[in-house]
Amino acid sequence: MNEGSIILLFIIALGIISNNRLITAGACTLLVLRVLKFQYLLGVLERRSLELGLILLVIAVLHPFNSGQITFKDIFTSLLTVPGLIAVCGGILASYMNQKGVVLLQTSPEVIVGLLTGTILGVALFHGIPVGPLAAAGITAMLLMLINLAG
Hints:
Oligomer: single chain
Helix content: over 70%
Low-confidence stretches: none
Number of helices: 7
């Protein structure tokens, strides 16, 4: 068994211990593809899975519009409230931070170890919820920007 497989098994164990199904499923999928020697598929996933994941996320977020759960009246009513306006600001900030997170993951893929470790510790020790690596990368990118500005 090679080092990559051992690392994936360790991540699977941590995912199970911390009840983080996304990390467990992702690591299991990669391990199965690795064992079955689907190198081409692994290459495609490496290049395109982030885009595919974002597309699926956007579909999930837009579905209430498609299903009629959110109407034009709901939109305008929400946007005219203080919480609605703050939510717009939060959405803008999160979008900006996540864009910086994508850049961080592309330029410094080694940060994924810290992101996964932090997510697992946050779930296990602080009863947090497992956020995706993209959101954690966005927060990390912003913290690194603040440290660079201060130093």
